[in-house]
Specification:
- The chain has a single domain, classed as TIM Barrel, CATH 3.20.20.70.
- The protein contains seven helices and eight strands, in the order E-H-E-E-H-E-H-E-E-H-E-H-E-H-H.
């Protein structure tokens, strides 16, 4: 297994109780957890709000994926909650450079997130300023959707433009789908349903890592 491969539990919760319960289940099991904040721009069933992050107390690094209109307006709350790395979706973002600069000024690592139908060219001009990029392998906003192989070409496009950039893939990750993603150049995987539907999360993470060998 490549030591750079990271399995990141992804939590998309409609209630604070569910969010905190899932955080507890993976605390100290992994090195990083991702919380998805979903607004009505991306789903008719929004997640908990960004204020819920104040209640998250985990002993691992916290990522937040902002699937919202103008994610720059959520950065202060992310900073106050101790977020280590923030991904803002570009689909409803007016100024990518302003988002990147403000998140960096607050001391967070910063990435841009790209929905499945959104082309890589939409972030090409700012790739040099990013710590990571998140590519959706399902339409953003809802858990449990099937993997879409169109993301593989987008990984290749990012690698060609900036070979050293960390690429995180989110959506539909299983031991079967992770293999071609690693081969294409992705190194981080935000995993939701496969972990939460398993009886043993540690075993499920082990299965995913084994599939990358």
């Amino acid at each position: 297994m490549d030591e750079q491969i990271k399995i990141i539990p992804a939590i998309l919760s409609g209630s604070l109780e569910d969010l905190l319960e899932k955080c507890t289940r993976v605390n100290r099991v992994v090195g990083r957890v991702q919380v998805d904040i979903v607004g009505r721009a991306f789903s008719a069933d929004p997640s908990v709000g960004v204020g819920a992050l104040d209640q998250v107390t985990i002993d691992v690094a916290l990522d937040v994926q902002l699937m919202v209109r103008e994610p720059i307006s959520f950065l202060n709350r992310c900073d106050l909650a101790g977020v280590d790395r923030v991904f803002g979706h570009v689909e409803y973002m007016h100024d990518q450079q302003a988002f990147i600069e403000y998140a960096s000024t607050l001391g967070m690592r910063v990435g841009l997130a790209v929905d499945l139908p959104t082309p890589v060219v939409s972030i090409e001009e700012v790739l040099a300023d990013l710590d990571a990029v998140l590519l959706m392998a399902v339409p953003a906003g809802r858990s449990g959707q099937p993997f879409d192989g169109r993301v593989l070409q987008k990984i290749a496009q990012v690698k060609a433009l900036r070979p050293d950039l960390a690429i995180c893939v989110d959506g539909g990750i299983t031991p079967d789908t992770i293999r071609p993603l690693v081969a294409a150049g992705a190194t981080e995987f935000a995993v939701g349903s496969f972990l939460w539907e398993s009886k043993d999360i540690v075993k499920a993470i082990g299965e995913l890592l084994e599939a990358t060998r």
